[in-house]
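Work Package 3 (structural annotation) set out to generate three-dimensional models for the target panel prioritized at the project kickoff. During this period the team completed the workflow that converts sequence records into discrete structure tokens, so that structures can be stored uniformly alongside our sequence database. As a representative example, we reproduce one entry of 117 residues exactly as it appears in the project archive.
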Amino acid sequence: QVELVESGGGSVQAGGSLRLSCAPSGRPLYGFSKAWFRRAPGNEREFVAGIRRNGAGTLYADSVKGRFTISRDNAKDTVYLQTNSLKPEDTAVYYCNARAPWGSAYWGRGTQVTVSS
């Protein structure tokens, strides 16, 4: 059984930074593309950032472009989300996603990010 485990969330003031991490437990997911999603209170889960299997391609939601950076360390089978210049509207539970080329996907349980003004 594979489970994605996120870490690095917390409470910061506006303008602050957090680095989120996600790694699988159970078995490695080396060949999977990885992504971060988030769900704010009262909202649906939304895409934040994604990165291809080899790390060569990345994609960001317009709301986080220029502030967030997704990266991966395949040797550690870990994906990161560096969040800078955080805003109160970034407050949400952040979820890690891993998707195989054949369509299988896994989700983490989420890590809370709270940004105060």
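Residues 2 and 55 are 22 Å apart (CA to CA).
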